[in-house]
Amino acid sequence: MVQAVMEKQLEQAAGRETVLSVRDLTVGFGDNIVLDKLNLDVLRGEILGFVGASGTGKSVLMRTVLRLLPKRSGTIEILGAEYDKVSDEERLALDMRLGVLFQHGALFSALTVRENIQVPMREYLDLPQDLMDELARLKIELVGLAPEAAEKYPSELSGGMIKRAALARALALDPDLVFLDEPTSGLDPIGAAEFDELIAKLRDTLGLTVYMVTHDLDSLFSVCDRIAVLGQKRVLVEGTIEDMLACDEPWVKSYFRGKRARAIVHD
Ligand SMILES: Nc1ncnc2c1ncn2[C@@H]1O[C@H](COP(=O)(O)OP(=O)(O)OP(=O)(O)O)[C@@H](O)[C@H]1O
Predict the structure, then answer these.
(1) Do the Cβ atoms of 108 and 118 come closer than 8 Å?
(2) What is the pLDDT of residue 218?
(3) Domain with 82 in it: what CATH number?
(4) Do 169 and 141 form a contact (C-beta atoms < 8 A)?
(5) How many Å lie between the centroid of ligand 1 and the Cα of residue 201?
(6) Quick one: pLDDT at residue 7?
(7) Which residues constitute the domain of residue 240?
(8) Which residue has a Cα nearest atom 9 of ligand 1?
(9) Does residue 54 carry a pLDDT above 80?
(10) What is the predicted pLDDT for the residue at 262?
(11) PANTHER family, from UniProt (predicted)?
């Protein structure tokens, strides 16, 4: 069954551009091998939901792809380039095409929302302050925050506003691919649904590709085009929500056909 789902996905993937291709990736800490020969493809323009039991290595994979953790072996090709094989200059250019929203927002508490959004601009670009202010204003509008949010500090924002501000910072350089680590965690169901709608809208309007680590079944059912499940140190199964619902792999079955999931399906 799992094999059949994988083969169907490969067929569907044929002909679409792969923006992230991970092959035989092994990552570990001392004797603890967290990912073992893992393979994963993310296709342009899709929202990929990445799930797996707690502690299976979802964050480790995302951090390794972002070069925040070292890999033992394997290849990671991102936006058509293999990081290990490009020059420093090309690596910098690649980094600019990636946006990241870390869990809990991870905004700088001593900076206002506007200043937070301008951090990547300062790091990668050499722009006059008035242009950066205008760009920050546009990003704030894009994520649905009020203009007044620009001069507020993170401590003055609600959880939902922090997520939106962090998303605005992730979008600061108009990336092709954004990584979201549990973007709806800590939000109430209405706030989470609004955030999901925002992500779908941004994908549709900006043509973003979204890689989203999530435990949120609502997000998986409502906005993800495809889902990848991490287990046994690799991607156990990849597919649409329908594929997940038909899958007999025990963890996938209990996650997607358990009590909580059934409540969503029958909503
Ligand atoms: N810097 C590190 N040093 C040593 N071990 C680590 C490090 N980071 C992660 N690990 C280990 O890697 C494994 C996977 O952790 P990871 O945080 O990726 O899980 P996760 O799937 O994201 O979990 P959760 O859903 O709870 O966030 C765990 O066993 C963890 O202890």
Answers:
(1) no
(2) 83
(3) 3.40.50.300
(4) no
(5) 31
(6) 56
(7) 2-97+175-265
(8) 60
(9) yes
(10) 64
(11) PROTEIN TRIGALACTOSYLDIACYLGLYCEROL 3, CHLOROPLASTIC
